[in-house]
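Exercise 7. Given the components listed, write out the predicted structure of the assembled complex. Treat all entries as one system.
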Amino acid sequence: MLNGGGGGQKKRNTKIEPYRHRVETDPKFFDKSWRKLHDAIREIYNHNASGLSFEELYRTAYNMVLNKFAPQLYEKLTENMKGHLEEMRTCIEAAQGGLFLEELQRKWNDHNKALTMIRDILMYMDRTYIPTNKKTPVFEHGLELWRDTIVRSPMIQGRLFDTLLELIHRERTGDVINRGLMRTTTKMLMDLGLSVYQDDFERPFLEVSASFYSGESQQFIECCTCGEYLKQAERRLHEESERVSQYLDAKTNEKITAVVVKEMLANHMQRLILMENSGLVNMLVEDRYEDLTRMYTLFNHVPDGLATIRSVMVSHIKDTGKSLVTDPERLKDPVDFVQRLLNMKDKYDNIINVSFSNDKSFLNALNSSFENFINLNNRSPEFISLFVDDKLRKGVKEANEEDLETVLDKVMMLFRYLQEKDLFEKYYKQHLAKRLLSGKAASDDSERSMLVKLKTECGYQFTSKLEGMFTDLKTSQDTTQGFYASTSSELPADAPTMSVQILTTGSWPTQTCNTCNLPPEIVSVSEKFRSYYLGTHNGRRLTWQTNMGTADIKVTFGNGSKHELNVSTYQMCVLMLFNSADVLTYREIEQSTAIPAADLKRCLQSLALVKGKQVLRKEPMSRDIADDDSFCVNDKFTSKLFKVKIGTVVAQKETDPEKLETRQRVEEDRKPQIEAAIVRIMKSRRVLDHNSIMTEVTKQLQPRFMPNPVVIKKRIESLIERDFLERDKTDRKMYRYLA
Amino acid sequence: MIIQCDLTVVRDPELCKTKGGFEIQVPPSDLAEQFGKLLLEEEETDVVFSVGGETFPAHKVVLAARSPVFKAQLYGNMKEAKARRVAVEDMQPGVFRALLKFIYIYTDALPVIGDDNICDDDYDEIIRHLLVAAACR
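Answer.
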């Protein structure tokens, strides 16, 4: 009910009824109306729309729809547009050569403009009749007609794609083409529907591209180095991405990239990576970071690409490392040996960091490679310890503290790879002992810093004995001071000054106990020290280790020259004999000093045969020492220096017998550790089968060394004999914990 | 033996609470009234419709915004796009006036047209055309 605005107005009783328009009775209404529209459409296609009246045309179409002529109108429209498109097709087909795409583009623009206007005129039909009857809207219908009449016509379809692909081919071979025209043409295909672009252009484009790159890759791989080839492949990938951004659909990028990757990289992966003289191995050897970066980046696209690179790198590192650690020449210089390992590690760390994006899988591969080859040489633990020994002796003399710290950190990386860390510990203990006892440790801070690193890596137990060594030295200082404080009044004024290092058994490397005859002057002081020490430490036992230690001796030679000699304890024992004898035979010296023959001969060689250090003279002057050879003081000895150091004790690479002895001692030390592990496991499990024990013992001891299964088996038998374990009565592979 | 106790008392912070809840009163929209005035006062018009002997000044941009048909007509490629005077046939002046009011002022309701001297027959036709026009929105 609607009301009038003013009072007093008559109220209207309006009822809304279904729409009833005046029905057109003219039998020629449709024909007249369609003629009007038909003529207008022709003018539109002939670029003469500016003279038309939109109001008139819209009203005409509107009235046709209202009078139920929409189906006929739609059909007539279809026929009419098809006719115009066929005319356009004739013009396009007649275009010569390079003008083909331009003509196609021009006609496409015309069609779009016409379609827009036609759609506007028929807007009422688009809104009413077409949705109701599920027809295609006018604009989309026009596009479909263009697709079917022109793009997919027999004479145009093939020519269109040949032309497009030809232009792309020319661009790939260096020509400059009309990219704008390419852009509008591919956009037309996309406007016609994504499936048109994909089916009618993209698929043949990808096929032709695959063929192109297959051919090019064959050609290049025959004449290029790997680096050059990859650079070309990279360039092609960039070009294709550029092309997509310029005039193809964005979704094509992934597909064309896959084609280039497959044809230029995946299909030749093995050949490229393994290429002689220029492949991955050569790149690694020559530190070609740029090429390596490119290879990593490109093969990232290839399935298994990085896995293959990693595999080849691992093989190369293992081969290089193996030849390094097994080269007899390299084994002569442990310090150089380890330095080469460090350099090699630096090299590959650098490559992975710079070229392989710090890829974790490559870092892991590098680590497992090093672990693999370092342990091929069972002397690696000794050599690493000798390297550390060399650095800690030189200390800040050669490098500043920070650099030393860096080197030690890197050495720890190598240490981490060792499978026999207990063997390293054994050697490290020996070398540390020599540094500490000979005063060759350059920096206490550096020594302790190294100890902290080892403790961090392997736990307190690993370094507890090593720390005990430092404690002993500190205690020794205090004890020596206490000794002199309490006994200074009892000693003769000219008594030699003695400094004692008290070494706790077990903390220090095992040494054979060699006593020799000390000079009387020394014995008097040492016995006083013994009395003092045992008096203040009840229940202890003191044994002199005369094979260690040094002495400073003041000497006046026959020619009147005076010098202070720094010699070993053994050398001191020998030299002191000449205070009461002018000439002594080897046999006499041996009897007087009781020094073991091997040590004594080495000692005498240092005193008599080293140029510039010959404080003794030997008859005859031969290298070998026989029982009847005689020695006397060299009265003609001269030296520019007042202090002369003779026969410094330096850590040496072990001889084979020594090496064997060390290894045997390590093997012996492992037995109780294996037994302890077995007992710990069985105590917690109570009952366990043979294989599980083997597995768990290995797992538990692995951080220190890789236990030998045969040894584990023997230790199990031993524990059974000693009633720690017993075999299960029904299953002989099962063990039970006793006690 | 001496025992020392340290006591720390923690209290809630004594901060003044900020009064919130401000609401800005926005006056009701008078957009329709203003557009109505725009039509009524015939300011800044850029097109004139000629309907049954009467003229109706109007604004292209308003008509285009409100009706795709007018947009196609006034901003398309045919002669009306360049013309200042557009002839409308087959329509009563009163009907066209009502159509314009509908376009400028109303969004949902049918217009109240009390002060026009429109006979009942014309009124019925107005309703029908307005429904059609609404369907084209």
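Discussion: The radius of gyration of chain A is 49 Å. The longest helix of chain A spans residues 194-223.
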